[in-house]
Protein backbone atom coordinates (compact mmCIF):
# COMPACT_ATOMS: atom_id res chain seq x y z
CA UNK A 1 0.00 0.00 0.00
CA UNK A 2 0.96 3.62 -0.51
CA UNK A 3 -0.30 6.83 1.07
CA UNK A 4 -1.03 10.04 -0.81
CA UNK A 5 -1.35 13.30 1.13
CA UNK A 6 -2.86 15.80 -1.28
CA UNK A 7 -5.86 17.86 -2.30
CA UNK A 8 -9.06 16.70 -3.94
CA UNK A 9 -9.82 17.76 -7.52
CA UNK A 10 -13.54 18.12 -8.23
CA UNK A 11 -12.90 17.37 -11.92
CA UNK A 12 -11.11 14.11 -11.03
CA UNK A 13 -8.11 14.81 -13.24
CA UNK A 14 -5.46 15.59 -10.63
CA UNK A 15 -4.88 15.38 -6.89
CA UNK A 16 -6.18 12.51 -4.79
CA UNK A 17 -8.47 11.22 -7.55
CA UNK A 18 -5.63 10.90 -10.07
CA UNK A 19 -3.22 9.55 -7.44
CA UNK A 20 -5.47 6.61 -6.54
CA UNK A 21 -5.99 5.63 -10.18
CA UNK A 22 -2.29 5.98 -11.03
CA UNK A 23 -1.25 3.81 -8.06
CA UNK A 24 -3.90 1.23 -8.90
CA UNK A 25 -2.62 1.05 -12.48
CA UNK A 26 0.76 -0.01 -11.02
CA UNK A 27 -0.82 -2.68 -8.83
CA UNK A 28 -0.65 -0.67 -5.60
CA UNK A 29 -3.57 0.24 -3.33
CA UNK A 30 -3.67 3.92 -2.44
CA UNK A 31 -4.72 5.24 0.97
CA UNK A 32 -5.40 8.97 1.32
CA UNK A 33 -5.14 11.96 3.60
CA UNK A 34 -6.99 14.88 2.01
CA UNK A 35 -5.45 18.29 2.66
CA UNK A 36 -7.99 20.48 0.86
CA UNK A 37 -11.11 20.31 -1.27
CA UNK A 38 -11.06 22.29 -4.50
CA UNK A 39 -13.82 23.49 -6.79
CA UNK A 40 -12.14 23.37 -10.18
CA UNK A 41 -12.67 22.35 -13.78
CA UNK A 42 -10.56 22.19 -16.93
CA UNK A 43 -10.45 26.00 -17.16
CA UNK A 44 -10.03 27.36 -13.63
CA UNK A 45 -9.79 26.80 -9.91
CA UNK A 46 -12.87 28.47 -8.44
CA UNK A 47 -12.40 27.77 -4.72
CA UNK A 48 -10.05 26.01 -2.31
CA UNK A 49 -11.23 24.83 1.09
CA UNK A 50 -8.28 23.64 3.23
CA UNK A 51 -9.09 21.09 5.91
CA UNK A 52 -8.13 21.77 9.53
CA UNK A 53 -4.64 20.54 10.35
CA UNK A 54 -5.92 18.18 13.07
CA UNK A 55 -8.24 16.50 10.55
CA UNK A 56 -5.41 15.98 8.05
CA UNK A 57 -3.13 14.47 10.67
CA UNK A 58 -6.08 12.44 11.96
CA UNK A 59 -6.46 10.83 8.54
CA UNK A 60 -2.75 9.99 8.48
CA UNK A 61 -2.88 8.55 12.00
CA UNK A 62 -5.92 6.40 11.22
CA UNK A 63 -4.24 4.87 8.17
CA UNK A 64 -0.80 4.39 9.70
CA UNK A 65 -2.06 2.74 12.90
CA UNK A 66 -3.91 0.04 10.99
CA UNK A 67 -2.09 -0.93 7.80
CA UNK A 68 1.45 -1.27 6.50
CA UNK A 69 2.31 1.62 4.19
CA UNK A 70 5.31 0.97 1.96
CA UNK A 71 5.74 4.48 0.53
CA UNK A 72 4.07 7.88 0.67
CA UNK A 73 3.78 11.01 -1.43
CA UNK A 74 2.79 14.60 -0.84
CA UNK A 75 0.98 16.70 -3.39
CA UNK A 76 -0.95 19.90 -2.76
CA UNK A 77 -0.29 20.98 0.84
CA UNK A 78 -1.67 24.50 0.31
CA UNK A 79 -0.25 26.29 3.36
CA UNK A 80 2.91 26.47 5.41
CA UNK A 81 0.92 25.36 8.45
CA UNK A 82 -0.32 22.19 6.74
CA UNK A 83 3.10 21.44 5.24
CA UNK A 84 4.83 21.79 8.60
CA UNK A 85 2.30 19.57 10.39
CA UNK A 86 2.53 16.89 7.67
CA UNK A 87 6.34 17.03 7.83
CA UNK A 88 6.29 16.57 11.60
CA UNK A 89 4.06 13.50 11.28
CA UNK A 90 6.10 11.97 8.46
CA UNK A 91 9.35 12.55 10.35
CA UNK A 92 8.23 9.94 12.86
CA UNK A 93 8.12 7.29 10.08
CA UNK A 94 10.82 5.83 7.87
CA UNK A 95 8.67 5.74 4.72
CA UNK A 96 10.16 6.37 1.30
CA UNK A 97 8.62 9.74 0.41
CA UNK A 98 7.97 11.32 -2.99
CA UNK A 99 7.46 15.08 -2.72
CA UNK A 100 5.56 16.75 -5.54
CA UNK A 101 5.85 20.44 -4.52
CA UNK A 102 2.54 21.52 -6.04
CA UNK A 103 2.33 25.31 -6.28
CA UNK A 104 0.19 25.94 -9.37
CA UNK A 105 -2.68 24.00 -10.97
CA UNK A 106 -2.48 22.69 -14.51
CA UNK A 107 -4.93 25.42 -15.53
CA UNK A 108 -2.50 28.05 -14.22
CA UNK A 109 -4.11 29.07 -10.92
CA UNK A 110 -2.18 29.20 -7.64
CA UNK A 111 -2.63 26.30 -5.24
CA UNK A 112 -0.66 27.69 -2.33
CA UNK A 113 -0.66 30.41 0.32
CA UNK A 114 2.21 32.51 1.63
CA UNK A 115 4.62 30.41 3.65
CA UNK A 116 4.14 27.23 1.59
CA UNK A 117 7.41 27.52 -0.36
CA UNK A 118 9.42 28.06 2.81
CA UNK A 119 7.77 25.14 4.57
CA UNK A 120 8.36 22.81 1.63
CA UNK A 121 11.97 23.95 1.39
CA UNK A 122 12.74 23.71 5.10
CA UNK A 123 10.44 20.98 6.39
CA UNK A 124 9.25 18.71 3.55
CA UNK A 125 12.23 18.58 1.14
CA UNK A 126 14.65 17.26 3.79
CA UNK A 127 12.39 14.20 4.18
CA UNK A 128 12.16 13.49 0.43
CA UNK A 129 13.37 10.29 -1.12
CA UNK A 130 12.57 11.91 -4.48
CA UNK A 131 11.42 15.49 -5.05
CA UNK A 132 9.69 16.14 -8.39
CA UNK A 133 9.40 19.87 -9.19
CA UNK A 134 8.76 21.38 -12.59
CA UNK A 135 10.87 24.33 -13.68
CA UNK A 136 8.84 27.12 -12.00
CA UNK A 137 8.61 25.09 -8.78
CA UNK A 138 12.35 24.43 -8.81
CA UNK A 139 13.01 28.14 -9.35
CA UNK A 140 10.77 29.01 -6.39
CA UNK A 141 12.48 26.47 -4.13
CA UNK A 142 16.07 27.28 -5.12
CA UNK A 143 15.90 30.96 -6.08
CA UNK A 144 17.73 30.11 -9.31
CA UNK A 145 16.79 31.09 -12.84
CA UNK A 146 16.56 27.92 -14.98
CA UNK A 147 16.80 28.33 -18.75
CA UNK A 148 19.77 26.19 -19.88
CA UNK A 149 21.03 22.65 -19.38
CA UNK A 150 23.69 23.95 -17.04
CA UNK A 151 20.97 25.70 -15.02
CA UNK A 152 19.09 22.39 -14.78
CA UNK A 153 22.11 20.59 -13.36
CA UNK A 154 22.81 23.45 -10.95
CA UNK A 155 19.18 23.39 -9.76
CA UNK A 156 19.25 19.62 -9.24
CA UNK A 157 22.30 19.94 -7.01
CA UNK A 158 20.69 22.80 -5.09
CA UNK A 159 17.51 20.77 -4.52
CA UNK A 160 19.57 17.83 -3.32
CA UNK A 161 21.31 20.12 -0.85
CA UNK A 162 17.91 20.81 0.71
CA UNK A 163 18.02 17.19 1.84
CA UNK A 164 16.28 15.28 -0.95
CA UNK A 165 17.93 11.96 -1.70
CA UNK A 166 17.09 12.22 -5.40
CA UNK A 167 15.67 14.91 -7.69
CA UNK A 168 13.44 14.56 -10.73
CA UNK A 169 13.36 17.94 -12.46
CA UNK A 170 10.61 17.94 -15.08
CA UNK A 171 11.46 19.81 -18.26
CA UNK A 172 8.05 20.55 -19.72
CA UNK A 173 8.41 24.32 -19.18
CA UNK A 174 11.76 24.57 -20.99
CA UNK A 175 11.94 25.78 -24.60
CA UNK A 176 12.78 23.42 -27.46
CA UNK A 177 11.29 20.65 -29.57
CA UNK A 178 12.04 18.06 -26.89
CA UNK A 179 10.83 17.93 -23.31
CA UNK A 180 13.68 16.56 -21.19
CA UNK A 181 13.26 15.21 -17.66
CA UNK A 182 16.40 15.09 -15.51
CA UNK A 183 16.92 12.58 -12.71
CA UNK A 184 19.75 13.26 -10.25
CA UNK A 185 20.86 10.70 -7.67
CA UNK A 186 24.16 10.02 -5.91
CA UNK A 187 25.92 12.68 -7.97
CA UNK A 188 24.83 11.16 -11.30
CA UNK A 189 22.44 12.54 -13.92
CA UNK A 190 20.08 10.64 -16.21
CA UNK A 191 18.17 12.66 -18.78
CA UNK A 192 15.25 11.32 -20.83
CA UNK A 193 13.66 13.31 -23.61
CA UNK A 194 10.41 13.03 -25.52
CA UNK A 195 8.85 15.08 -28.32
CA UNK A 196 7.02 18.08 -26.92
CA UNK A 197 3.22 17.78 -27.13
CA UNK A 198 1.08 20.62 -28.45
CA UNK A 199 -1.40 20.72 -25.57
CA UNK A 200 -0.73 20.74 -21.85
CA UNK A 201 -2.19 18.01 -19.70
CA UNK A 202 -4.00 18.41 -16.40
CA UNK A 203 -2.76 16.07 -13.66
CA UNK A 204 0.52 14.98 -15.21
CA UNK A 205 2.66 15.94 -12.22
CA UNK A 206 0.38 14.20 -9.75
CA UNK A 207 0.28 11.08 -11.87
CA UNK A 208 4.06 10.90 -12.40
CA UNK A 209 4.76 11.29 -8.67
CA UNK A 210 2.16 8.61 -7.93
CA UNK A 211 3.84 6.24 -10.38
CA UNK A 212 7.14 6.86 -8.58
CA UNK A 213 5.51 6.26 -5.19
CA UNK A 214 3.90 3.02 -6.36
CA UNK A 215 7.16 1.70 -7.78
CA UNK A 216 9.05 2.54 -4.58
CA UNK A 217 6.28 0.83 -2.61
CA UNK A 218 6.86 -2.31 -4.67
CA UNK A 219 10.51 -2.30 -3.63
CA UNK A 220 12.07 -1.02 -6.83
CA UNK A 221 15.24 1.03 -6.64
CA UNK A 222 15.59 4.70 -7.51
CA UNK A 223 16.76 4.37 -11.11
CA UNK A 224 14.36 1.53 -11.88
CA UNK A 225 11.44 3.49 -10.40
CA UNK A 226 12.31 6.52 -12.49
CA UNK A 227 12.59 4.58 -15.74
CA UNK A 228 9.35 2.66 -15.15
CA UNK A 229 7.50 5.82 -14.14
CA UNK A 230 8.82 7.85 -17.06
CA UNK A 231 7.64 5.20 -19.52
CA UNK A 232 4.23 5.09 -17.83
CA UNK A 233 3.74 8.88 -17.88
CA UNK A 234 4.63 8.98 -21.59
CA UNK A 235 1.75 6.57 -22.25
CA UNK A 236 -0.50 8.64 -19.98
CA UNK A 237 0.27 11.88 -21.80
CA UNK A 238 -0.26 10.18 -25.17
CA UNK A 239 -3.69 9.04 -23.95
CA UNK A 240 -4.76 12.45 -22.62
CA UNK A 241 -8.39 13.26 -23.36
CA UNK A 242 -10.71 16.24 -23.42
CA UNK A 243 -13.55 16.46 -20.90
CA UNK A 244 -14.27 20.19 -20.92
CA UNK A 245 -13.41 23.40 -22.72
CA UNK A 246 -9.95 23.79 -21.16
CA UNK A 247 -6.85 21.72 -20.50
CA UNK A 248 -7.15 18.00 -21.41
CA UNK A 249 -6.74 15.38 -18.71
CA UNK A 250 -3.72 13.07 -18.59
CA UNK A 251 -4.87 9.42 -18.34
CA UNK A 252 -3.55 7.72 -15.15
CA UNK A 253 -4.88 4.31 -16.25
CA UNK A 254 -3.14 4.43 -19.63
CA UNK A 255 -1.07 1.28 -19.00
CA UNK A 256 -4.11 -0.75 -17.98
CA UNK A 257 -6.10 0.55 -20.94
CA UNK A 258 -3.22 -0.23 -23.31
CA UNK A 259 -2.90 -3.77 -21.96
CA UNK A 260 -6.64 -4.28 -22.42
CA UNK A 261 -6.37 -3.01 -25.99
CA UNK A 262 -3.44 -5.37 -26.62
CA UNK A 263 -5.45 -8.35 -25.41
CA UNK A 264 -8.45 -7.45 -27.58
CA UNK A 265 -6.26 -6.67 -30.59
CA UNK A 266 -4.45 -10.00 -30.25
CA UNK A 267 -7.67 -11.99 -29.87
CA UNK A 268 -9.38 -10.31 -32.81
CA UNK A 269 -6.32 -10.67 -35.04
CA UNK A 270 -5.93 -14.37 -34.25
CA UNK A 271 -9.60 -15.12 -34.98
CA UNK A 272 -9.54 -13.16 -38.24
CA UNK A 273 -6.26 -14.66 -39.41
CA UNK A 274 -7.54 -18.18 -38.74
CA UNK A 275 -10.73 -17.40 -40.67
CA UNK A 276 -8.68 -15.99 -43.55
CA UNK A 277 -6.56 -19.14 -43.53
CA UNK A 278 -9.71 -21.23 -43.98
CA UNK A 279 -11.00 -19.34 -47.02
CA UNK A 280 -7.99 -17.94 -48.92
CA UNK A 281 -7.23 -19.74 -52.21
CA UNK A 282 -3.71 -21.12 -52.30
CA UNK A 283 -3.07 -19.03 -55.41
CA UNK A 284 -3.51 -15.89 -53.29
CA UNK A 285 -0.88 -16.89 -50.72
CA UNK A 286 2.63 -15.46 -51.27
CA UNK A 287 5.52 -17.90 -51.32
CA UNK A 288 6.71 -16.45 -48.01
CA UNK A 289 3.22 -16.67 -46.52
CA UNK A 290 0.42 -14.17 -45.98
CA UNK A 291 0.81 -11.75 -43.06
CA UNK A 292 -2.00 -9.91 -41.28
CA UNK A 293 -1.56 -6.98 -38.87
CA UNK A 294 -3.78 -4.89 -36.59
CA UNK A 295 -2.69 -1.60 -34.94
CA UNK A 296 -3.42 -0.31 -31.47
CA UNK A 297 -5.42 2.95 -31.45
CA UNK A 298 -2.94 5.78 -31.92
CA UNK A 299 -0.12 3.39 -32.86
CA UNK A 300 3.24 5.18 -33.18
CA UNK A 301 5.66 2.41 -34.21
CA UNK A 302 5.73 -1.28 -35.09
CA UNK A 303 5.75 -2.29 -31.42
CA UNK A 304 2.18 -0.93 -31.34
CA UNK A 305 1.21 -3.24 -34.20
CA UNK A 306 0.23 -6.88 -33.70
CA UNK A 307 1.05 -9.22 -36.55
CA UNK A 308 0.94 -12.89 -37.46
CA UNK A 309 1.21 -15.22 -40.42
CA UNK A 310 -2.13 -16.39 -41.75
CA UNK A 311 -2.28 -20.08 -40.69
CA UNK A 312 -3.27 -21.65 -43.99
CA UNK A 313 -4.39 -25.23 -43.38
CA UNK A 314 -3.48 -25.01 -39.67
CA UNK A 315 -6.17 -25.21 -36.99
CA UNK A 316 -6.11 -24.57 -33.26
CA UNK A 317 -4.02 -21.41 -33.21
CA UNK A 318 -0.66 -22.95 -34.13
CA UNK A 319 0.64 -19.50 -35.06
CA UNK A 320 0.90 -16.87 -32.32
CA UNK A 321 0.27 -13.16 -32.93
CA UNK A 322 2.86 -10.82 -31.47
CA UNK A 323 3.58 -7.10 -31.38
CA UNK A 324 6.47 -6.00 -33.54
CA UNK A 325 6.25 -8.89 -36.01
CA UNK A 326 5.57 -8.50 -39.77
CA UNK A 327 7.61 -5.26 -39.82
CA UNK A 328 7.21 -4.51 -43.54
CA UNK A 329 3.42 -4.77 -43.57
CA UNK A 330 3.23 -3.02 -40.19
CA UNK A 331 5.28 -0.09 -41.49
CA UNK A 332 3.06 0.23 -44.56
CA UNK A 333 -0.11 0.25 -42.46
CA UNK A 334 1.41 2.79 -40.03
CA UNK A 335 2.22 5.09 -42.95
CA UNK A 336 -1.38 4.82 -44.15
CA UNK A 337 -2.67 5.38 -40.61
CA UNK A 338 -0.78 8.68 -40.35
CA UNK A 339 -2.91 9.99 -43.22
CA UNK A 340 -6.16 8.21 -42.32
CA UNK A 341 -6.60 7.26 -38.66
CA UNK A 342 -9.36 4.84 -39.61
CA UNK A 343 -6.87 2.51 -41.31
CA UNK A 344 -5.57 0.07 -38.70
CA UNK A 345 -5.30 -3.33 -40.41
CA UNK A 346 -3.68 -4.91 -43.42
CA UNK A 347 -3.00 -8.24 -45.13
CA UNK A 348 -0.36 -9.19 -47.68
CA UNK A 349 -1.43 -11.36 -50.62
CA UNK A 350 0.23 -12.59 -53.80
CA UNK A 351 0.03 -10.02 -56.60
CA UNK A 352 -1.94 -11.94 -59.24
CA UNK A 353 -4.39 -10.88 -61.92
CA UNK A 354 -7.27 -12.44 -59.97
CA UNK A 355 -6.49 -10.40 -56.88
CA UNK A 356 -6.16 -7.15 -58.88
CA UNK A 357 -9.38 -7.91 -60.79
CA UNK A 358 -11.21 -8.51 -57.50
CA UNK A 359 -10.01 -5.20 -56.09
CA UNK A 360 -11.07 -3.21 -59.15
CA UNK A 361 -14.48 -4.91 -59.42
CA UNK A 362 -15.07 -4.12 -55.74
CA UNK A 363 -14.46 -0.41 -56.52
CA UNK A 364 -11.46 -0.29 -54.20
CA UNK A 365 -8.86 2.41 -54.81
CA UNK A 366 -5.71 0.74 -56.14
CA UNK A 367 -2.20 2.18 -56.14
CA UNK A 368 0.96 0.64 -57.58
CA UNK A 369 4.68 0.95 -56.97
CA UNK A 370 7.73 -1.02 -58.03
CA UNK A 371 10.50 -1.94 -55.60
CA UNK A 372 13.70 -0.02 -56.03
CA UNK A 373 16.91 -1.88 -56.68
CA UNK A 374 19.63 -1.98 -54.03
CA UNK A 375 19.78 -3.05 -50.43
CA UNK A 376 18.60 -1.45 -47.24
CA UNK A 377 16.00 -1.68 -44.53
CA UNK A 378 12.96 -3.12 -46.34
CA UNK A 379 10.55 -2.03 -43.60
CA UNK A 380 11.81 1.55 -43.82
CA UNK A 381 11.63 1.36 -47.60
CA UNK A 382 8.03 0.13 -47.40
CA UNK A 383 7.01 3.14 -45.32
CA UNK A 384 8.74 5.60 -47.64
CA UNK A 385 7.12 4.12 -50.76
CA UNK A 386 3.69 4.15 -49.09
CA UNK A 387 4.12 7.81 -48.16
CA UNK A 388 5.15 8.66 -51.73
CA UNK A 389 2.18 6.76 -53.19
CA UNK A 390 -0.32 8.47 -50.87
CA UNK A 391 1.11 11.89 -51.78
CA UNK A 392 0.81 11.11 -55.51
CA UNK A 393 -2.75 9.76 -55.23
CA UNK A 394 -3.91 12.38 -52.76
CA UNK A 395 -5.59 9.68 -50.66
CA UNK A 396 -4.91 6.37 -48.92
CA UNK A 397 -5.58 3.51 -51.36
CA UNK A 398 -7.52 0.42 -50.30
CA UNK A 399 -5.08 -1.82 -52.15
CA UNK A 400 -1.38 -1.31 -52.86
CA UNK A 401 0.30 -3.36 -55.56
CA UNK A 402 4.02 -3.91 -55.10
CA UNK A 403 5.21 -5.19 -58.49
CA UNK A 404 8.38 -6.54 -56.95
CA UNK A 405 11.84 -6.49 -58.42
CA UNK A 406 14.83 -8.72 -59.10
CA UNK A 407 14.60 -11.72 -56.77
CA UNK A 408 11.54 -10.35 -54.95
CA UNK A 409 7.94 -11.53 -55.13
CA UNK A 410 5.14 -9.19 -56.26
CA UNK A 411 2.73 -8.54 -53.37
CA UNK A 412 -0.60 -6.85 -52.71
CA UNK A 413 -1.26 -5.00 -49.45
CA UNK A 414 -4.97 -4.75 -48.66
CA UNK A 415 -5.79 -2.08 -46.06
CA UNK A 416 -8.88 -1.78 -43.89
CA UNK A 417 -10.17 -0.46 -40.58
CA UNK A 418 -10.03 -3.89 -38.90
CA UNK A 419 -9.05 -7.51 -39.55
CA UNK A 420 -12.74 -8.42 -39.58
CA UNK A 421 -13.26 -6.01 -42.48
CA UNK A 422 -10.33 -7.61 -44.33
CA UNK A 423 -11.91 -11.06 -43.95
CA UNK A 424 -15.32 -9.73 -44.98
CA UNK A 425 -13.83 -8.28 -48.17
CA UNK A 426 -12.13 -11.57 -48.99
CA UNK A 427 -15.33 -13.52 -48.34
CA UNK A 428 -17.32 -11.25 -50.67
CA UNK A 429 -14.65 -11.63 -53.34
CA UNK A 430 -14.87 -15.42 -53.24
CA UNK A 431 -18.67 -15.75 -53.43
CATH domain topology of the largest domain: UDP-N-acetylmuramoyl-L-alanine:D-glutamate ligase
Q: What percent strand? A: 15-25%
> SSE order, as H and E?
EHEEHEHEHEHHEEEHHHEEEHEHEHEEH
Q: What's the CATH superfamily of the largest domain, by name?
A: Ribokinase
Can you lay out the helices and strands and say which pair or pack?
Layout: E1 2-8, H1 15-25, E2 30-40, E3 45-50, H2 53-64, E4 71-74, H3 80-91, E5 97-99, H4 116-124, E6 130-131, H5 135-142, H6 149-161, E7 166-169, E8 178-185, E9 188-195, H7 204-217, H8 222-238, H9 254-279, E10 291-295, E11 305-309, E12 322-323, H10 327-339, E13 345-350, H11 353-361, E14 366-369, H12 378-393, E15 399-402, E16 411-416, H13 419-429
Parallel strand pairs: 1-2, 1-4, 4-5, 5-6, 6-7, 14-15
Antiparallel strand pairs: 2-3, 7-8, 8-9, 10-11, 10-13, 11-12, 13-16, 15-16
